[in-house]
Specification:
Layout: E1 13-20, E2 23-30, E3 41-45, H1 52-56, H2 68-74, E4 78-82, H3 100-118, E5 123-128, H4 130-141, E6 146-152, H5 162-168, H6 171-176, E7 179-181, H7 184-192, H8 201-214, E8 217-219, H9 221-228, E9 242-247, H10 255-264, E10 270-275, H11 288-299
Parallel strand pairs: 3-4, 3-5, 5-6, 6-9, 9-10
Antiparallel strand pairs: 1-2, 2-4, 7-8
Helix pairs in contact: 3-4, 5-9, 7-8
Domain AB hydrolase-1: 41-181
Keywords: Hydrolase
GO molecular function: monoacylglycerol lipase activity
Length: 308
Amino acid sequence: MQSATAPKPVVTGREHWTKNGDAELFLWQKAPADGRTPAGTILFVHGSSMASQPTFDLQVPGRPWSSAMDYFVDKGFETWCVDMRGYGRSDKRPGTRATIAEGAEDLVAATDYIIRETGATSFHTYGISSGALRAAAFTELKPERVKRLALDAFVWTGEGSHTLENRRKKLPDFREGERRPIDKAFVYSIFNRDHPGAAEDKVIEAFADGITALDDSMPNGTYIDMCTRLPLIDPAKITVPTIIMRGEWDGIAGFDDLAAFFKLLPNPDKQFAVMPGISHASIQQKNYMIVYHILHAFFTQPDPVYRG
């Protein structure tokens, strides 16, 4: 495993644009620059309260491999992320709900574009929080496009999620408008609600700066979905190799809820990883290198030669 203290190379990113219907979607690509054939293509899927670049390409001075995209490019992967409708640089027109189902449709449109541009045929797909729900819903729609699926901070029925229990108290406010305001204090609350101290202040500050530079509000669609419509995913329809990743202190992802989902996954190529010392936003935590290690091991696992 690459040491967290290793020097971080400069990796140049490239922006792309595509459409889902008439809604413009922003995509961000980072890839090896030395002409190597990629070890695979990773699609990163963001959550409810932040766009894709602050989540997966966060640059923090003095924090080696702060960018997950840079880390996996160094490992030989081509990496992509996309801002869902309503987030970041993508379309934010009035009427944009940005539901889980719409996010899955955005991922179909994004992968349509990536396939045309690069010839990639399938994607190692990682989603976090509501991004995990989006990634799972995308997998139900297009299983042939998902080589391996990583679901981090995932929620199935919502049982045992004290974060969702508290969020439901504000449901009337979410239903009143299309968007909810965010600021840096809100970003700090993500890290302080479950286990304060699991992330460095300088990382939270950089994350908050990156999020609020792109958005001062977020769409309510995923919040309403997660408070009123769970379960949204049928484990029987997730037929690809899958890993469930849960931070030790994550208030969204109830352990028993995830274990019940895991048992029903039909593919025997499946894993359940508990990440010690991590709460909700795993890639921004002090133990982020554990997250990278788990993902890299899963994405590079050999296919079985014998299935019985």
